[in-house]
Amino acid sequence: MLTKNKQKFIRSLALKKVRDAEGVFLAEGPKVVEELLDKFVCLSLLGTHRYLESASAQTAMHGAQHIAEIIPINDTQLSQLSLQKTPHDVIAVFQRPQEATDVALWKDIPTQSLALALDDIQDPGNLGTIIRLADWFGIEHIFCSPATADAFSPKTVQATMGALGRVRLHYTPLPSFIQRLKEGTPIYGTFLDGENLYTQPLTTNGLIVMGNEGNGISPEIRKLCTHRLLIPNYPAGRATSESLNVSVATAIICSEFRRQAVEQE
Length: 265
Description:
CATH superfamily of the largest domain: SPOUT methyltransferase, trefoil knot domain
Helix content: 25-40%
Number of helices: 12
Shape: elongated
Strand content: 15-25%
Structural class: alpha/beta
Number of domains: 2
Distance between the termini: 55 Å
Low-confidence stretches: none
Radius of gyration: 20 Å
CATH architecture of the largest domain: 3-Layer(aba) Sandwich
CATH class of the largest domain: Alpha Beta
Protein backbone atom coordinates (compact mmCIF):
# COMPACT_ATOMS: atom_id res chain seq x y z
CA MET A 1 0.00 0.00 0.00
CA LEU A 2 1.23 3.46 -0.88
CA THR A 3 1.27 5.58 2.26
CA LYS A 4 1.44 9.36 2.39
CA ASN A 5 4.88 9.14 3.99
CA LYS A 6 6.14 6.88 1.22
CA GLN A 7 4.72 9.24 -1.40
CA LYS A 8 6.35 12.23 0.27
CA PHE A 9 9.68 10.40 0.51
CA ILE A 10 9.74 9.44 -3.17
CA ARG A 11 8.96 12.99 -4.24
CA SER A 12 11.76 14.25 -1.97
CA LEU A 13 14.30 12.23 -3.97
CA ALA A 14 14.33 15.03 -6.52
CA LEU A 15 16.70 16.70 -4.02
CA LYS A 16 20.37 15.70 -4.01
CA LYS A 17 20.72 16.27 -0.27
CA VAL A 18 17.97 13.73 0.38
CA ARG A 19 19.42 11.17 -2.06
CA ASP A 20 22.85 11.57 -0.47
CA ALA A 21 21.54 11.33 3.08
CA GLU A 22 19.49 8.22 2.33
CA GLY A 23 22.00 6.60 -0.05
CA VAL A 24 19.36 5.95 -2.69
CA PHE A 25 18.31 7.03 -6.17
CA LEU A 26 15.15 7.02 -8.25
CA ALA A 27 14.53 5.40 -11.64
CA GLU A 28 11.43 5.54 -13.82
CA GLY A 29 10.05 3.64 -16.79
CA PRO A 30 10.20 -0.06 -17.72
CA LYS A 31 13.40 0.12 -19.78
CA VAL A 32 15.50 1.89 -17.14
CA VAL A 33 14.08 0.03 -14.13
CA GLU A 34 14.40 -3.40 -15.73
CA GLU A 35 18.00 -2.71 -16.74
CA LEU A 36 18.86 -1.82 -13.14
CA LEU A 37 16.97 -4.50 -11.20
CA ASP A 38 19.76 -7.06 -11.48
CA LYS A 39 22.51 -4.47 -10.80
CA PHE A 40 21.29 -2.69 -7.64
CA VAL A 41 19.25 -3.55 -4.56
CA CYS A 42 15.68 -2.29 -5.08
CA LEU A 43 14.14 -0.86 -1.93
CA SER A 44 10.73 -0.12 -3.46
CA LEU A 45 9.17 -1.11 -6.78
CA LEU A 46 5.98 0.79 -7.52
CA GLY A 47 4.07 -0.11 -10.65
CA THR A 48 0.63 -0.15 -12.21
CA HIS A 49 -1.14 -3.50 -12.37
CA ARG A 50 -0.70 -3.61 -16.15
CA TYR A 51 3.03 -3.26 -15.69
CA LEU A 52 3.48 -5.65 -12.76
CA GLU A 53 1.53 -8.33 -14.61
CA SER A 54 3.42 -7.90 -17.90
CA ALA A 55 5.85 -10.53 -19.15
CA SER A 56 8.82 -8.15 -19.14
CA ALA A 57 8.17 -7.13 -15.54
CA GLN A 58 7.85 -10.74 -14.40
CA THR A 59 11.13 -11.64 -16.10
CA ALA A 60 12.94 -8.63 -14.64
CA MET A 61 11.62 -9.24 -11.13
CA HIS A 62 12.62 -12.90 -11.32
CA GLY A 63 16.20 -11.91 -12.16
CA ALA A 64 16.39 -9.01 -9.71
CA GLN A 65 19.24 -8.78 -7.21
CA HIS A 66 16.77 -8.05 -4.39
CA ILE A 67 13.40 -6.28 -4.14
CA ALA A 68 12.46 -5.26 -0.61
CA GLU A 69 8.85 -4.34 -1.44
CA ILE A 70 6.48 -4.23 -4.40
CA ILE A 71 3.67 -1.67 -4.24
CA PRO A 72 0.84 -1.67 -6.81
CA ILE A 73 -0.27 1.86 -7.74
CA ASN A 74 -2.90 3.34 -10.03
CA ASP A 75 -2.42 5.93 -12.76
CA THR A 76 -3.33 8.83 -10.49
CA GLN A 77 -0.76 7.80 -7.90
CA LEU A 78 1.81 7.28 -10.64
CA SER A 79 1.29 10.85 -11.86
CA GLN A 80 1.60 12.19 -8.33
CA LEU A 81 4.86 10.29 -7.74
CA SER A 82 6.58 10.73 -11.07
CA LEU A 83 9.19 13.40 -11.71
CA GLN A 84 8.73 12.94 -15.46
CA LYS A 85 6.38 14.91 -17.69
CA THR A 86 5.03 11.65 -19.06
CA PRO A 87 5.00 8.88 -16.41
CA HIS A 88 5.70 5.34 -17.63
CA ASP A 89 4.02 2.66 -15.48
CA VAL A 90 6.81 1.96 -12.98
CA ILE A 91 9.02 3.80 -10.47
CA ALA A 92 11.78 2.23 -8.40
CA VAL A 93 13.90 3.35 -5.48
CA PHE A 94 17.36 1.76 -5.59
CA GLN A 95 20.14 1.61 -3.04
CA ARG A 96 23.27 3.39 -4.23
CA PRO A 97 26.42 1.30 -4.40
CA GLN A 98 29.09 1.79 -1.78
CA GLU A 99 31.89 3.62 -3.60
CA ALA A 100 35.51 3.20 -2.59
CA THR A 101 37.25 6.52 -1.98
CA ASP A 102 40.86 5.36 -2.02
CA VAL A 103 42.43 6.72 -5.22
CA ALA A 104 45.08 4.00 -4.97
CA LEU A 105 42.40 1.47 -5.94
CA TRP A 106 41.67 3.35 -9.20
CA LYS A 107 45.04 4.57 -10.39
CA ASP A 108 45.87 1.49 -12.50
CA ILE A 109 42.61 1.57 -14.47
CA PRO A 110 43.74 4.05 -17.20
CA THR A 111 47.04 2.16 -17.49
CA GLN A 112 45.23 -1.07 -18.30
CA SER A 113 42.19 0.17 -20.23
CA LEU A 114 40.51 3.22 -21.71
CA ALA A 115 38.68 5.50 -19.25
CA LEU A 116 36.94 8.87 -19.32
CA ALA A 117 37.49 11.89 -17.08
CA LEU A 118 34.82 14.59 -16.85
CA ASP A 119 36.03 18.04 -15.83
CA ASP A 120 33.02 19.86 -14.34
CA ILE A 121 30.31 18.60 -16.73
CA GLN A 122 27.26 20.54 -15.51
CA ASP A 123 24.25 19.29 -17.42
CA PRO A 124 22.66 16.07 -16.07
CA GLY A 125 21.44 15.16 -19.55
CA ASN A 126 24.96 15.45 -20.96
CA LEU A 127 26.31 13.32 -18.13
CA GLY A 128 23.68 10.64 -18.64
CA THR A 129 24.34 10.55 -22.37
CA ILE A 130 28.09 10.23 -21.78
CA ILE A 131 27.51 7.32 -19.39
CA ARG A 132 25.39 5.64 -22.06
CA LEU A 133 28.10 6.27 -24.67
CA ALA A 134 30.77 4.83 -22.38
CA ASP A 135 28.68 1.69 -22.01
CA TRP A 136 28.26 1.42 -25.80
CA PHE A 137 31.99 1.73 -26.43
CA GLY A 138 33.03 -0.64 -23.64
CA ILE A 139 34.42 2.00 -21.29
CA GLU A 140 33.71 0.78 -17.78
CA HIS A 141 35.09 3.63 -15.65
CA ILE A 142 34.44 7.39 -15.62
CA PHE A 143 36.34 9.71 -13.27
CA CYS A 144 34.42 12.87 -12.40
CA SER A 145 35.53 16.10 -10.79
CA PRO A 146 33.59 16.90 -7.59
CA ALA A 147 31.74 19.71 -9.42
CA THR A 148 30.46 17.37 -12.14
CA ALA A 149 26.70 16.80 -12.11
CA ASP A 150 25.28 14.08 -9.87
CA ALA A 151 25.24 10.71 -11.66
CA PHE A 152 22.26 9.65 -9.56
CA SER A 153 19.97 12.60 -10.24
CA PRO A 154 16.67 11.52 -11.83
CA LYS A 155 17.47 13.28 -15.12
CA THR A 156 20.90 11.67 -15.37
CA VAL A 157 19.56 8.22 -14.49
CA GLN A 158 16.89 8.52 -17.19
CA ALA A 159 19.42 9.64 -19.80
CA THR A 160 21.67 6.63 -19.12
CA MET A 161 18.86 4.24 -20.17
CA GLY A 162 20.19 1.64 -17.76
CA ALA A 163 23.90 2.02 -18.57
CA LEU A 164 24.46 3.23 -15.00
CA GLY A 165 24.47 -0.40 -13.96
CA ARG A 166 27.46 -1.26 -16.14
CA VAL A 167 29.64 1.87 -15.87
CA ARG A 168 31.34 2.82 -12.61
CA LEU A 169 31.64 6.51 -11.74
CA HIS A 170 34.29 7.80 -9.35
CA TYR A 171 34.16 11.36 -8.00
CA THR A 172 37.60 12.69 -7.14
CA PRO A 173 39.75 15.82 -7.61
CA LEU A 174 41.05 15.17 -11.13
CA PRO A 175 44.45 16.95 -10.98
CA SER A 176 45.68 14.91 -8.02
CA PHE A 177 44.24 11.72 -9.52
CA ILE A 178 45.97 12.28 -12.87
CA GLN A 179 49.25 13.07 -11.13
CA ARG A 180 49.11 9.70 -9.39
CA LEU A 181 48.76 7.71 -12.60
CA LYS A 182 51.64 5.54 -13.71
CA GLU A 183 54.27 7.47 -15.66
CA GLY A 184 53.68 7.17 -19.39
CA THR A 185 49.88 6.76 -19.12
CA PRO A 186 48.39 8.68 -22.08
CA ILE A 187 46.20 11.63 -21.04
CA TYR A 188 44.09 12.86 -23.96
CA GLY A 189 42.28 16.19 -24.05
CA THR A 190 40.28 18.00 -26.72
CA PHE A 191 41.46 21.48 -27.71
CA LEU A 192 40.77 23.92 -30.53
CA ASP A 193 44.51 24.05 -31.20
CA GLY A 194 45.00 20.28 -30.94
CA GLU A 195 46.11 17.75 -33.54
CA ASN A 196 43.57 16.29 -35.97
CA LEU A 197 41.88 13.36 -34.22
CA TYR A 198 41.79 11.32 -37.43
CA THR A 199 45.52 11.56 -38.13
CA GLN A 200 46.78 10.67 -34.65
CA PRO A 201 47.64 7.15 -33.50
CA LEU A 202 45.41 6.39 -30.51
CA THR A 203 46.05 3.86 -27.77
CA THR A 204 43.76 1.23 -26.27
CA ASN A 205 44.49 2.51 -22.78
CA GLY A 206 44.66 5.94 -21.18
CA LEU A 207 42.41 8.72 -19.94
CA ILE A 208 40.22 10.87 -22.21
CA VAL A 209 39.41 14.20 -20.55
CA MET A 210 36.21 15.98 -21.56
CA GLY A 211 35.81 19.59 -20.42
CA ASN A 212 33.06 21.80 -19.08
CA GLU A 213 30.30 22.82 -21.51
CA GLY A 214 31.24 26.50 -21.47
CA ASN A 215 34.88 26.65 -20.42
CA GLY A 216 36.36 23.43 -21.73
CA ILE A 217 39.18 21.71 -19.85
CA SER A 218 40.41 23.68 -16.83
CA PRO A 219 43.92 25.22 -16.99
CA GLU A 220 45.26 22.94 -14.25
CA ILE A 221 44.25 19.82 -16.14
CA ARG A 222 45.33 21.19 -19.52
CA LYS A 223 48.91 21.15 -18.25
CA LEU A 224 48.60 17.44 -17.46
CA CYS A 225 47.33 16.37 -20.88
CA THR A 226 50.01 14.54 -22.87
CA HIS A 227 48.01 14.45 -26.12
CA ARG A 228 45.99 17.38 -27.45
CA LEU A 229 43.26 16.35 -29.91
CA LEU A 230 41.05 18.37 -32.26
CA ILE A 231 37.81 17.23 -33.83
CA PRO A 232 38.10 19.02 -37.19
CA ASN A 233 35.11 20.67 -38.81
CA TYR A 234 34.46 20.15 -42.51
CA PRO A 235 35.51 21.63 -44.80
CA ALA A 236 38.55 23.18 -43.13
CA GLY A 237 38.32 26.96 -42.82
CA ARG A 238 34.53 27.12 -43.21
CA ALA A 239 32.71 29.38 -40.73
CA THR A 240 30.90 27.10 -38.30
CA SER A 241 29.75 26.68 -34.70
CA GLU A 242 32.31 27.56 -32.04
CA SER A 243 32.25 24.06 -30.54
CA LEU A 244 30.38 20.78 -30.29
CA ASN A 245 28.09 19.66 -27.50
CA VAL A 246 30.26 17.74 -25.03
CA SER A 247 28.29 14.50 -25.32
CA VAL A 248 28.45 14.67 -29.12
CA ALA A 249 32.21 15.30 -28.93
CA THR A 250 32.57 12.33 -26.56
CA ALA A 251 30.78 10.08 -29.04
CA ILE A 252 33.04 11.13 -31.92
CA ILE A 253 36.22 10.67 -29.90
CA CYS A 254 35.28 7.31 -28.40
CA SER A 255 34.23 6.05 -31.82
CA GLU A 256 37.63 6.91 -33.32
CA PHE A 257 39.49 5.30 -30.43
CA ARG A 258 37.53 2.10 -30.90
CA ARG A 259 37.82 2.19 -34.70
CA GLN A 260 41.59 2.29 -34.44
CA ALA A 261 41.55 -0.45 -31.80
CA VAL A 262 39.62 -2.74 -34.15
CA GLU A 263 42.14 -2.04 -36.94
CA GLN A 264 44.96 -3.03 -34.61
CA GLU A 265 43.42 -6.37 -33.69
